[in-house]
Each structure stands twice: as C-alpha cells, then as structure tokens.
Amino acid sequence: MADRVTSVPGVAGESGSPAEHRAAVARLVASFRAIPPHAPVRLAKRTSNLFRARERPTAPGLDVSGLAGVLSVDPRGRTADVAGMCTYERLVDATLPHGMVPLVVPQLKTITLGGAVTGLGIESSSFRCGLPHESVLEMDILTGSGEVVTARPDGEHADLFRGFPNSYGSLGYATRLRIELEPVQAFVALRHVRFHSVDDLVAALGAIVDTGHHDGERVDYLDGVVFSATESYLCLGAKTDVPGPVSDYTGQLVYYQSIRHDEPRPRHDRLTTRDYLWRWDTDWFWCSRAFGAQDPRIRQLWPRRWRRSSTYWKLVALDQRFHVAARLDARRGRPPQERVVQDVEVPLERCAEFLHWFLREVPIEPVWLCPLRLREASGELATATSGDRPWPLYPLRAGQTYVNVGFWSTVPADPSAPPGEANRLIEAEVTRVHGHKSLYSDAYYDRDEFDRLYGGETYAALKRRYDPDRRLLDLYTKAVQRK
Fold first, then answer.
1. Sign of CA dihedral 192, 197, 198, 199
2. By the 8 A CB rule, do 70 and 83 touch?
3. What is the model's pTM?
C-alpha cells in the first residue's frame, strides 16, 4: 500500500490538481454572481438522489464543472481531499487501491460526498462510525452570500461546520471536503442470521452494537431486512484477507434474495470489498423489481451496465414527468397511488414497537434496517461538537443507539383524504416514538413542528449570517412547501 499523498487525476475535465480545482471554484463563484438577485439559485447538475417534487428549472444553475474529482489521497494520514460533487463511486475507486475507504460509504454509487454531508447518508458501518458528516475534518463552502469559507470544528466558521449537515443546500454548497479514511481488507465475509420475531431481531441488533460481536465473531458491518413480522434477517459483515470464492450480484443473481433462508444456522457468503460496498446499488435495494429487472427473462436482456441505481432513478424521473405509471394504473382500474419513500431514525428501545406498527398499518415490504450511533469523536472535533446534540439541524442524542428504517414504494391513495395521508401517519408515529425523519423525500410538517424537530432557532441564526439576502431557498421551503 502506498504511504504518501497521492494526487488523483480527474477525468473528462474534472479537478485533478490544485490549480484545476481553484479554477473550478472560480467558475462556480462567477456563475453565482451572474445569477440575477431575485432569480433562484440551484446547482446545474443532471442527477439527483432526492425524491421531493421539484420544479423544472427555467434559469441557469451554478456551474459545477470540474468539481467532481478526488484531489488527493493520503494513506499514511488516512485522509482524502475531495471536490464536493464527487460521487462515492469515484471516491472509492480512488481510495480502494490504497486499501482505504471513507468511514461510511452510502449505498448508492451516484450519491455525492457533498450531498451526503449537506443531506444525510448512512450505511452498515454507521453503528461504529456514525454518519458521513462526522468524519469530515474541514470543508470549503460557497455560502448564500457568494463567499467561499473554510469551515472547521473550531474557529470562525465552526457554527457553519456544525449546522451544515441536514441543511440540504439552503446554507451553501461544499466545494471541497477533507475526510477521514479507514483501512479495509480484500473481502467481506457475511453471515445472514434469520429471526422469526422482530423483537428478537432488535434485541440481537442492540447487543451487536454494544459489543461489536455476535456468537463470538467480530462484526464490522451491520444491517438487516424485514420481510414480514415472522421473517427478518441481520446481515453481519467482517473484513477479511482470507482468499476464497466470492459471489457476484451484478449479473443474474439478486443480492437481497440471497439473504433469505429457512436454515437454523446463518447463511454464509463472501464478496469483494468493492462489491460489498455496492451490493445494494445493482438493484436499488429491491426497487428494480418495479421495472421488471428481477424477472430472469428481462434481466438477461437488461445490459449489465444499466443495472445500477442511476438508471432506475432516470426511469423514475421520466415517470414523474410524464405520469406513465398513473396512466397505466387508471387504464387497469387500479386506485391512485401515494409515494411512500422514506428513511427514519428510531431509538433502539422503540424500534420493535415502530416496526410492529408499520407492518400492521403500511402495506410495504421489505424494509431495510441500519443501526447507527453518533461517533465518539476525539481531539478538536470532540471539543467543538461536544454536547448532548452536537449536530443541531438533525439533533440525534449522543450515546443513543438509533435504527434507520427505510421503506420505498407506493400505497393505494384514498381520494377523499388529504394529500400524503400515509406519509402524514408515518410522520406522526415517528414523532411519537421520539424518532427523526430524513428530508430527502416528501414531508408534511407544519412550520412550528418542523422548526422544533430540525433546529429552527439555530438554523435561523445561520441563515442570517451566511445567507443574509436569502439567495437560497430556506430548508422548510425546500423540504416541505415545494410540492
């Protein structure tokens, strides 16, 4: 493994040197200043992992060309400098040859580092490494005032460092981030453990989070899938360099289907580390079934390069634009459908209760589970972010284990009910069990409740300081009102 700082050349004009990066940032700032004062400010990018309804752009966006590269990797210091629009796919491709990866690699290849920090990201290492923004050491941010500032855990812009996560571009956009890396090994050995009771699964999950082990074996990665009240699984991963055969779920086989079994003992599997990191991307978890991509007759004709989340997202975007599914449902006499695409964080102690409610009230299966704990930071980061709720716009409690519950589908809509009825019921239940809901999809909170849940007073102060002319949409407008 290399032990020096390595510059990572960009591709097709992406940033690969300090000079190229500075030029890209200058173009970004110039494009910001060229937008008329009362025109909306947005990023000029073709992809998104948001599921909120958005207006079609009518004005030019910010020029982010050249801001999608990896600037450098320092294997000895275990850090990387990365442009804000760099996807995790590109980032992993740059760090993995050094035996390193980001501490948390979100599940989908086209999620950008800047997006995972200003929004939220999570994965199976989150029970020991927290959320992506917790491994950021510093970041350059283009604020709503048109100024690029460097935010660190301490210093002049420490308030922006703490308030940037979950601001969703309403305070600014990250142009560069320095992040921590961690070493990995060549493979991930998997154990899929079946449970016949949701309560038993949640109890086992909590024990693994506390100890880092299950049945005497180390657990480095932990997530799970609930198919029904009587069939659920924990997927336990361990780093290993022991050679041996590996599975491939980028072809005809589907990863989530491999989890299921009736055996009393865990089902074992092995993946290369890279394939493990992207195990969910090939079929967008299980959502590719909506496009027929899991039908063997269709799958064998579906080009392998198109079996990825970015392809499915484009299909969804086309459907949202032309309402193809709704028209087909109407022709078949099916009722209108309500989109229910959400990730929520529920305290471990209330997780089984929430799951029982969800399985009883919401006709969606499977659901994904991913435990997390805020990271126990050290040094300057610990001093600067210490406190019960160190990240004010998504105020999870330090020392508390949460379980992310992800569910992504549609349910029949009641034409006589208010829009978003199922989503509103879920929001109310999440609040009742003292959980939090990610804001990448539809939300229906009123303003007072939203401010209470998402650091309203702190956010207002940050908005006054970093976007005094309100060039950027505020968080409530972006997350709730733009329907």
1. negative
2. yes
3. 0.93
